[in-house]
Amino acid sequence: MTLETLPIGQRARIVAVDWERIAPEDGKRLRALGIDEGARIAIAHRGVLGGRDPIALMIGRMTVALRRAHAEAMTVEHL
């Protein structure tokens, strides 16, 4: 399952990221925030307009806004 399809509130772990689908500068920022393989995350909220961007991602005690296109490049497993 991809991060984009993860239900709100469900805890998960990122098992793979297709970095080829993410621009290098965006990938660098995501890694700096700890969004990489092995990270434990949950979806806090999704945008309500158009493409449901952005996605509010909880990682540790942070909440980070993430583009839906980036979330589609991440494979997760339920915890």
CATH architecture descriptor name:
Roll
What would the CATH topology be? SH3 type barrels
Counted by DSSP, the helix tally is 2
Mean pLDDT: 90
Helix content: 10-25%
How many β-strand stretches? 5
**CATH class identity:** Mainly Beta
Shape assignment: globular
Description:
The chain is of the alpha+beta class and about 80 residues long. The chain has one domain (about 5-79): Roll (SH3 type barrels), CATH 2.30.30. The mean pLDDT is about 90. It is globular. A 5-stranded antiparallel sheet has the order 4-3-2-1-5. The protein has 2 helices and 5 strands. The longest helix has 9 residues, at about 25-30. Keywords: Iron. This is Ferrous iron transport protein A. It comes from Parerythrobacter lacustris. It holds the Pfam family FeoA.
SSE layout:
Layout lengths: L10 E7 L6 H9 L7 E7 L8 E5 L2 E5 L1 H5 L1 E5 L1
What would the keywords be for this entry?
single chain, 79 residues, alpha+beta, SH3 type barrels, 5-stranded antiparallel β-sheet, 5 strands, 37% strand, globular
